[in-house]
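2024-03-11 09:14:02 INFO worker-7 job=invfold-0412 stage=load source=structure_tokens
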């Protein structure tokens, strides 16, 4: 006879083994699904990063491709006769008389001398279109600075108009129908003749970095906007940095923790998310309409941007102060230092790297702002380079906005070049923030 106990053990052993096998298979299947999900998530992340980098790369490639032509200028070499009968008939050599002379005629006569067969009035008008309006101003500048040149025949390099500058750089294609381009076949022929004679040359465009804005694309530069941005940032820094750091120190180290300080902290956090154009409306209503400060001035622009930057600096400064270990405060207090001495001699110096980092990031944000400055009139057309915080001025982002809105095709290159300069400033400021954090960072 068969032992019932042995029969029961024999029948249950395979069942237990099958259960363990099924459990092991389930675990392995779950691990495979988990690994597969992790691999898909990693692939999604890599794909998202690759897509973002490709979009950024396309953006930068487009800006650089469009902006590179603005860094070179096309000039025309002419032999100009500084006729005294045209410049100073009375021979007084007074600066006012020299400045009012008809230098356009002098320059156009020099160009007409290159093509003596052009006698028709219409053709002469087309020939003169090769020259920029800045050509006469360049000759005027030479004569006013050195009146001894009057009566002589000198060689000067003057800028060509924007259309011929684009033609020289290949932007205007000769294969396009004449009716669809701004340069006629005859003008192209004259330009090619001048180039064959060695009169046309291309060089680095210093005008772009030394001039202010202009209606003529070939004469427009960013120096006026750069100076306006500099003065605006100086005002912003002088107002926002001490006020922001003082507010952060008070809220973090001295203010009692009650309902009033909680409301203040909530409002500061909310102000950091307020659209920048609201600060522009505030500046327009308070600084200009109420206090009567000048419109389109770096003083008002800096005050508006200081209000916008304050929440960022306060929040960053409070975070830097919180990062200082409590043991520093306790040790200083234990040695007999007062609360003010603890903060000024120990806590604030240790938190300063983080405060400076937050300040630089806030200033970089302010440098790229446009909307609040449009509201206070810094969108005006400014030809003169500002010499102080109360002079009319514009800033680099607004200059980009103005050029992008211009119908002239040559301003496309100026717009992209100005964006490159602005991005360069922003990259430098953010890199400076990273370097300061790395250099002075302390790990507790």
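2024-03-11 09:14:09 INFO worker-7 stage=emit residues=444
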């Amino acid at each position: 006879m068969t032992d019932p106990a042995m029969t029961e053990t024999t029948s249950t052993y395979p069942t237990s083994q099958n259960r363990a096998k099924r459990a092991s298979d389930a675990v392995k299947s779950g691990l495979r699904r988990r690994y597969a999900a992790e691999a898909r998530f990693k692939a999604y992340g890599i794909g998202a990063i690759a897509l973002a980098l490709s979009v950024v790369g396309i953006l930068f490639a487009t800006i650089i491709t469009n902006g590179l032509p603005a860094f070179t200028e096309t000039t025309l070499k002419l032999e100009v006769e500084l006729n005294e009968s045209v410049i100073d008939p009375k021979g007084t050599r007074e600066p006012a008389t020299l400045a009012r002379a008809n230098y356009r005629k002098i320059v156009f006569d020099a160009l007409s001398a290159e093509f003596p067969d052009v006698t028709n009035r219409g053709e002469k008008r087309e020939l003169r279109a090769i020259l920029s309006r800045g050509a006469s101003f360049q000759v005027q500048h030479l004569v006013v600075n050195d009146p001894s040149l009057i009566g002589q025949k000198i060689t000067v390099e003057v800028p060509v108009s924007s259309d011929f500058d684009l033609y020289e750089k290949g932007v205007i294609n000769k294969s396009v129908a004449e009716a669809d381009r701004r340069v006629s076949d005859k003008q192209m022929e004259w330009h090619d003749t001048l180039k064959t004679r060695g009169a046309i040359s291309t060089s680095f465009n210093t005008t772009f970095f030394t001039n202010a804005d202009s209606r003529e694309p070939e004469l427009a530069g960013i120096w006026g906007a750069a100076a306006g941005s500099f003065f605006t940032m100086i005002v912003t820094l002088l107002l926002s940095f001490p006020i922001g750091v003082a507010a952060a120190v008070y809220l973090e180290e001295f203010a009692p923790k009650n309902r009033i300080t909680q409301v203040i902290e909530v409002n500061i956090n909310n102000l950091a998310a307020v659209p920048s154009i609201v600060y522009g409306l505030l500046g327009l209503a308070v600084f200009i309409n109420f206090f009567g400060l000048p419109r389109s001035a770096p003083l008002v622009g800096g005050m508006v941007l200081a209000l916008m930057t304050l929440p960022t600096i306060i929040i960053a400064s409070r975070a830097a102060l919180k990062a200082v270990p409590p043991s520093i405060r306790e040790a200083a207090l234990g040695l007999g230092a007062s609360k003010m001495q603890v903060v000024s001699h120990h806590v604030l110096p240790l938190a300063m790297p983080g405060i400076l980092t937050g300040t630089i990031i806030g200033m970089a944000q302010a440098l790229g702002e446009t909307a609040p400055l449009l509201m206070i009139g810094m969108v005006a057309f400014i030809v003169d380079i500002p010499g102080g915080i109360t002079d009319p001025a514009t800033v680099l982002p607004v200059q980009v906005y103005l050029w992008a809105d211009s119908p002239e095709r040559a301003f496309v290159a100026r717009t992209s070049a100005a964006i490159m300069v602005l991005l360069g400033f922003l990259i430098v400021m953010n890199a400076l923030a990273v370097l300061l954090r790395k250099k002075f960072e302390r790990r507790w």
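2024-03-11 09:14:09 INFO worker-7 stage=report msg="The CA atoms of residues 323 and 351 lie 7 Å apart."
2024-03-11 09:14:10 INFO worker-7 job finished
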